[in-house]
Each structure stands twice: as structure tokens, then as C-alpha cells.
From TrEMBL:
This is Oligo-1,6-glucosidase. It holds the Pfam family Alpha-amylase. It is an enzyme of class 3 (hydrolase). It comes from Acholeplasma brassicae. Its EC number is 3.2.1.10.
């Protein structure tokens, strides 16, 4: 049998610190708020936290634009608070995984400020290029839309795959890689257990020549998963592999199972990768151009990755994605949609990642105007859309549907000021009066209670963690698979549709089900079942 690593056995919870819990009433989440909620996370049953960036940041991209990798954004607290979080979490057997942002820094980082002088030793920390008679050096488009080239006062350009306040680092300069070895050593010495590597397969730009082909808003250019990109990741991982039992989970862009397996092939590069394919089944060629969610498309993508990649990082939400409950479920079936997704996430093969608020079925925010958005990506896309003459009404609807701010509204701890007694940095969802931790703790049946139970079912049943997976024949929109470990076999059957589905079902031991009744030959809308014992 597989002797699993700790990160294969963990149930990981992603905290977006700005929106988790505010303890000094400035309307902004902080590290002391996370410390305060460790008992809650312990009670829920998670044993690792992926912490989105808490470093000193210019807050253009709320932490993903870093000014100092060795210190904490004073809005979130101090380095001592961070050390205390690590200590308290460790006491509760909760590991801390930090966000490692290698592709770029903030344009307010000292390195970048120095690099503006062409003779500076930091000039080659970034990617500068002369334009062609004042025009941008190549046709690349960025992830936030528009050109990746920002003109400087000197008339040349620097590269930024994301916002212009996030200049890309130049990994052709070995000093940059050495800087990240120091950063990793610093945090590993403080006792963190791993890194979530931001956009980890695009940070090495082999050539700056024109792209092969370009999708709107996201060029599939030469910088995807270059050979040197692999080598650098391997070098960083191997630098610490012998001295630390740590893990690296890579956030990957524009990837397929083969590229994922390339990143996972040497055990000294990445341990896990987040893929996007299943999160792109309800869009056309990028997130802003949506198409209707079809359960069978989501099922197809999940089955593809489950059969072609041995150990996935499974997720349906994070700080970049709209909330999943109505995206992959149905507003008329809130409880069943949320608990169906819970069963799916926690019974697939691989490591499950739960995003803050997903465990209580938090929903998108009902934005009504552009000035409510704080996300740089949403603002940039609006600007670009207006330049392209996209009608305001249509443009607003695109952004309202897909804005990352949908996932960043404050955590709903109770009916009123659970997150903060001050006005939150981003408006809290008024439906917190119905959807919140406190009331779901008290209710006999709630999404939160279901998550806690399902996390425990996973822990108590080796097939769900260590078991192999094989898919069975099911009606359209129903996902069915067996998880087998030694002589134990569990059957998981999940109706991802809002229709009743006919399917012969054994009534043998039901381990968990998100409906009160199990119908012999029928699956109710969003009914999810785990059937144990003899099948
Ligand atoms: O996201 C990288 C990335 O691929 C996202 O830009 C994604 O494509 C988009 O948000 C959804 O379409 C990482 C971080 O998760 C994100 O929060 C940062 O803004 C980005 O990198 C830059 O650091
Ligand atoms: Ca605060």
C-alpha cells in the first residue's frame, strides 16, 4: 500500500487573510484573527492552512505584489504575530503553507526601484527591452488584459504578465533564483510546512519573440513551462529537500495533464499542482466570456484529470474564482448543491482544498456598480472593455459574474459584525444573516455540519484517501466512481444535475448522503451518496 505523505493525507483550508477575521477593528482581516479561529479550523477537522500572501505589499493585487518577502504587511500584523500563528497552529497539528510569488514583485520593491537605473546591479533582476520606434517589443497580452509591456520614463519598456505594478522578475539572472533560496530558507526556518507557488510554470521567459498564437486576454506564448522553468523549480526544491519535510504545490497556468505530469515527474520539483481545466468548463476562451454550466462537461474534465494524473490538488473555489455553490449548483437547492460539492471534493482521489466560506455555502455578491469592486483585475478588464466599446451594461454583467471579488467578501461568522466591528474593506454579503458559521453551528442540518461530517468520513475511510479510483457507468450528469483500498471498496454516486435521475442503487450501508431519504432507483437533484461495505 502507498505510504502517504502528510500533504497527501491533509485536508487543506485556504485563508485569504484580508477577509478572514479582523481583531483590531480596522475593517481588514489580520493574523491575530486567524489565531483566534484556529480552534474553529481544528473543530472542522482541517489540518493545514494555505495562507494567501501576508508580506509587505503595495496592495495593488492585495499581497500578490510584494515589496518585502521577509516582513509582514502591517495591516495584517507583525512578524511576531506570524511566528505566533505558526506556533499555535503547530500546537493544534495544523500546518502552515505560505504563498510564494516568484514571477514578479511589486513595482515598489527596492529591487525594482533600483533597477530603473540602467547601471544598477538590479537592472537585470527585471526584463527591460527597447521598443521598436516607441512601439511595444512584442505582441504578448497579459492575464489582466492588454499588453505586457509598460513604458518607462526613459522610453524603454519592462515586462509584466499581470498588472503594470507587478514587474516580472528575470530568472535568466541566477541572482534572482538565489534570492528565492534565501526567502524559502527564511520561512522554512520559521517552521512553515510548504509553499503554494504562484503561477509557477510561466516565470522563465525563454525568448521574447512573438507568441505562437494568442487567445484573447491570455496569450499562449513562449514562456509556458520552458525547460529552464523546470530546472529552476527542481533546484529550489532540492536545495531544501534533505533538510525539511516540506511540500510545494504549484499554481499552473494553461496546463494539460501531460504538462502537469512533467511538473510532477521528478519527485524533486513539485509535489502537487492546481489545474484549471475543470474550472473553465463554463467559459468560452477565458473567464469573461461565459457559457452555461453543463454538469457533463465538469464531469468530463474531472474524470480526465483523475485518470491521467495520479494525485491531484482538488478544489472548486479559491480567491480567484467566483463561489461554486450556484456556479456548479442551483440557487433553488442551496443546501444540496453545497453538500453535493462537499462530497465530490472530499471523495475524489488527491488532496482536497477548501476555500474560506465554502464550508458554509457562501455565495457571490450582488454587485450593482463598478465602484464596489476592489480587484485590480476587474478594474483593468472594465477599462479595456470600455476602450473596445463594449456596452457598459454588458461589460458590467461580465465583471459581476466573474470578478474575483465574489470570493473575497468577508467571511460570514455570524449575522452581524462577526468579521469586524468596523466597515469592512470590501462589503460583506447581506445574506450573512442567513448564511453564517454561528447559525450553522447550532442547526441540526447545515452545510457546515455536513462538511465536518464529510471530512471525518474521509478520515475514517482509507479508500477515500489511499484508495484507487475507477469510474462506473452512470446516467448523464451523474458521476460515479469506486474507491478501492485493499479489501475495502466504497461507491460514490453524485448527481450533479437539478433533475431526478434513474439509477439502480444498492441500499447497503450508506456512509453519508446529503438527503434525508435514499430512493432505491432514483437520485434526487444534487444527491450525493457514499455507499460502503459490500456492494
Ligand atoms: O493567479 C494566476 C492566474 O492564473 C490568475 O490570474 C487567473 O488566471 C485569474 O485570476 C483567473 O482567471 C495568481 C494568483 O492566484 C492571483 O490572485 C494573482 O492575481 C496572480 O497570480 C498574480 O500574482
Ligand atoms: Ca484588522
Amino acid at each position: 500500500d502507498m505510504n502517504l505523505t502528510w500533504w497527501q493525507q491533509m485536508v487543506c483550508y485556504q485563508v485569504y487573510p484580508r477577509s478572514f477575521k479582523d481583531t483590531n477593528n480596522d475593517g481588514i482581516g489580520d493574523i491575530n484573527g486567524i489565531i483566534e479561529k484556529l480552534d474553529y479550523l481544528s473543530w472542522l477537522g482541517v489540518n493545514a492552512i494555505w495562507l494567501s500572501p501576508v508580506y509587505v505589499s503595495a496592495n495593488d493585487d492585495f499581497g500578490y505584489d510584494i515589496i518585502d518577502y521577509y516582513d509582514i504587511n502591517q495591516e495584517y500584523g507583525t512578524l511576531d504575530d506570524m511566528k505566533r500563528l505558526i506556533e499555535k497552529a503547530t500546537e493544534k497539528n495544523i500546518k502552515i503553507i505560505m504563498d510564494l510569488v516568484m514571477n514578479h514583485t511589486s513595482d515598489e520593491h527596492p529591487w525594482f526601484i533600483e533597477s530603473k537605473d540602467p547601471n544598477s546591479a538590479y537592472r537585470d533582476y527585471y526584463i527591460y527591452k527597447e521598443g521598436k520606434n516607441g512601439k511595444v517589443p512584442n505582441n504578448w497580452t497579459g492575464f489582466f488584459g492588454g499588453s505586457v509591456w509598460q513604458k518607462t520614463e526613459r522610453g524603454d519598456f519592462y515586462l509584466h504578465l499581470f498588472s503594470h505594478k507587478q514587474p516580472d522578475l528575470n530568472f535568466k539572472n541566477p541572482k534572482v533564483k538565489e534570492e528565492f533560496k534565501k526567502i524559502m530558507a527564511f520561512w522554512l526556518d520559521l517552521g512553515i510546512a510548504g509553499f503554494r507557488c504562484d503561477v509557477c510554470n510561466v516565470f522563465y521567459k525563454e525568448s521574447l519573440e512573438n507568441g505562437k498564437f494568442r487567445l484573447v486576454l491570455k496569450g499562449l506564448e513562449h514562456y509556458h513551462q520552458t525547460k529552464r522553468n523546470h530546472e529552476i523549480l527542481q533546484e529550489l526544491k532540492q536545495a531544501f529537500n534533505k533538510d525539511y519535510d516540506f511540500m510545494m504545490v504549484g499554481e499552473t497556468v494553461m496546463i494539460n495533464p501531460k504538462m502537469a505530469n512533467d511538473l510532477l515527474s521528478t519527485e524533486k520539483e513539485l509535489d502537487l499542482v492546481f489545474s484549471f481545466e475543470h474550472m473553465e468548463t463554463d467559459q468560452i476562451n477565458n473567464k469573461w466570456f461565459k457559457r452555461k454550466h453543463r454538469p457533463e462537461r465538469l464531469i468530463k474534465a474531472l474524470m480526465k484529470w483523475q485518470t491521467q494524473v495520479d494525485w491531484n490538488a482538488n478544489y472548486f473555489e479559491n480567491h480567484d474564482q467566483p463561489r461554486s455553490v450556484y456556479r456548479f449548483g442551483d440557487k433553488r437547492y442551496h443546501y444540496y448543491s453545497a453538500t453535493m460539492l462537499s462530497t465530490l471534493l472530499l471523495s475524489l482521489r488527491g488532496t482536497p482544498f477548501i476555500y474560506q466560506g465554502q464550508e458554509i455555502g457562501m455565495t457571490n455578491f450582488d454587485f450593482t456598480q463598478m465602484d464596489q469592486f476592489k480587484d485590480t483585475e476587474s478594474k483593468r478588464i472594465y477599462e479595456i472593455g470600455r476602450k473596445l466599446r463594449i456596452p457598459k451594461k454588458y461589460l458590467f454583467k461580465m465583471i459581476k459574474t466573474s470578478s474575483r471579488d465574489n470570493a473575497r467578501t468577508p467571511m460570514q461568522w455570524d449575522t452581524s459584525e462577526g468579521f469586524s466591528q468596523a466597515v469592512p474593506w470590501l462589503a460583506i454579503n447581506p445574506n450573512q444573516k442567513d448564511i453564517n458559521v454561528k447559525s450553522q453551528m447550532i442547526q441540526e442540518k447545515s452545510v457546515l455540519k455536513y462538511y465536518k461530517k464529510m471530512i471525518n468520513v474521509r478520515k475514517e475511510n482509507k479508500p477515500l484517501v489511499e484508495g484507487t479510483i475507477s469510474f462506473i457507468k452512470t446516467p448523464k450528469g451523474v458521476l460515479g466512481f469506486e474507491r478501492t483500498y485493499q479489501d475495502k471498496k466504497l461507491l460514490v454516486v453524485i448527481n450533479l444535475t437539478n433533475k431526478v435521475k434513474k439509477m439502480a442503487l444498492h441500499r447497503s450501508q450508506i456512509l453519508i448522503n446529503n438527503y434525508e431519504t435514499v430512493l432505491k432507483h432514483k437520485l434526487m437533484p444534487y444527491q450525493a451518496l457514499i455507499i460502503g461495505g459490500g456492494l
